[in-house]
Amino acid sequence: MSQLLTSRQAEELHKSIIAYLSAIGLNESASALRKESQIGDSFDDATRKKYEGLLEKKWTSVVRLQKKIMDLESRNATLQHELDSSTPTSLLRKNQDPTSWLPRSPARHTLQSHRQPVTCVAFHPIFSSLASGSEDTTIKIWDWELGELERTVKGHTKGVLDVDFGGPRGGTLLASCSSDITIKLWDPSDEYKNIRTLPGHDHSVSAVRFVPSGAAGSPASGNLLVSASRDKTLRVWDVTTGYCVKTIRGHADWVRDVAPSIDGRWLVSAGNDQTARLWDAASGEAKTAFVGHEHHVECVAIAPPASYSHLAGLAGLKKAPPAGSSAEFIATGSRDKTIKVWDGRGTLIKTLVGHDNWVRGLVFHPGGKYLLSCSDDKTIRCWDLAQEGKCVKTLEDAHGHFVSCIRWAPSVVKDDPLNGAAAGANGVVNGGAPKKDEPGGQKMNIRCVIATGSVDQNVRVFAS
């Protein structure tokens, strides 16, 4: 006792115990303790009243404090776990080259809230927000780092078929399209308020993409949006006015997907007429038709300049196209279960065979070496363009049902958050690739994050 309490503290404790024993009628015990602890006649009625109840108060205080400490320790452990699992830098493997990173199971997060199949996903260019659209008519906004639902955006009256972030520099918008024949624009900076609805298509709108503007290396602020529809047309919209500035006709059936080139000069579309088509974005003139699939073409992707050196070999070219050019190579995925890689003149240079069902989504690795695909066979496959398109990785059962969409988090400019925001918002097409070494000497920082959506109603985030 002497090691823990001073003599005065010990005396106070003894008096509190004697007062407690007296209060509950254990007078003999109280007397014995007074005798053994040498507390004599000084312990009168006034002293007893002073110490009465003190022991109980101390006891309950200790219990309350213990509970508070336990609660705080539990909360601290939860926050530490959240920090460890959510901070990308803490999860980056040392010496890992982001240009060779590929997704692996299990997914970092499985995001659950949709009540119908998930049809589309898109990353915010700056923040850790991820949008997903579903046949349940809603758009969900998630924090992909934390794996938490931030909000549900409602406005469409039928299934949401595609979403994309982009827009004028410094003013990122979210665009969505739906089977209800409309395109809607939402403002992320104003609680995703619906700021404009774009009517004009005559049937379901299958895909929307913001179109970057300006030559490679210039500030790529874009106020144009392109949409693809079941009415067989592509439409180009000015998001600042809401006007349709161009209608592009040429497909003979439902247009399923559209992708703009990194400089906004070209558009590639694909559809149920079993073709993909290359268009001049400025004039709307058809440049090339890609013919060879034996079923509906579900998806298209334009190769980034980082892929040119690998694809040039596949195409039999002695020299890769210049990095400043765009739409030199494209990939298409079809219900015929194949992926086809073409040059910009419409020549088929490789057919990738491996999926056991419809190919539903394609994305080129920003590092340029790989092409990733998702399919109704529930897998994600990684194709190595440096090895003649060999499938080098398969994520079996990436979802519990058909995998309907795949997107890559857009890259950001290193060490320059302001320019990174602008370039991320517009210079990097969502799910596309960054521009290499811009004139200002800036380099793009690849984010090793992929999101997928599925008929199993889940969104999954695969991250390093």
Automatic annotation (TrEMBL):
GO cellular component: cytoplasm; microtubule; microtubule associated complex; Set1C/COMPASS complex; spindle pole
Pfam families hit by this protein: LisH_PAC1, WD40
Keyword field contains Lipoprotein: no
WD repeat extents: 111-152, 153-187, 198-247, 248-289, 326-343, 352-385
Alphabetized UniProt keyword annotations: Cell cycle, Cell division, Coiled coil, Cytoplasm, Cytoskeleton, Hydrolase, Microtubule, Mitosis, Repeat, Transport, WD repeat
One BP term from GO: establishment of mitotic spindle orientation
Location, primary (coarse class): cytoplasm
Listed Gene3D superfamilies: 1.20.960.30, YVTN repeat-like/Quinoprotein amine dehydrogenase (2.130.10.10)
Superkingdom of this protein's organism: Eukaryota
Region (Disordered) residue spans: 80-109
Keyword Cell cycle: yes
Compartment annotation: Cytoplasm, Cytoskeleton; Cytoplasm, Cytoskeleton, Spindle pole
Alphabetical list of PANTHER family matching this protein: WD REPEAT DOMAIN 5B, WD40 REPEAT PROTEIN
Its job: Involved in mitochondrial fission. Acts as an adapter protein required to form mitochondrial fission complexes. Formation of these complexes is required to promote constriction and fission of the mitochondrial compartment at a late step in mitochondrial division. Positively regulates the activity of the minus-end directed microtubule motor protein dynein. May enhance dynein-mediated microtubule sliding by targeting dynein to the microtubule plus end. Required for nuclear migration during vegetative growth as well as development. Required for retrograde early endosome (EE) transport from the hyphal tip. Required for localization of dynein to the mitotic spindle poles. Recruits additional proteins to the dynein complex at SPBs.
Annotated domain remarks: Dimerization mediated by the LisH domain may be required to activate dynein.
Family under the similarity heading: Belongs to the WD repeat LIS1/nudF family.
Protein name as it appears in the record: Nuclear distribution protein PAC1
Species this chain originates from: Lineolata rhizophorae
Encoding gene, per UniProt annotation: PAC1
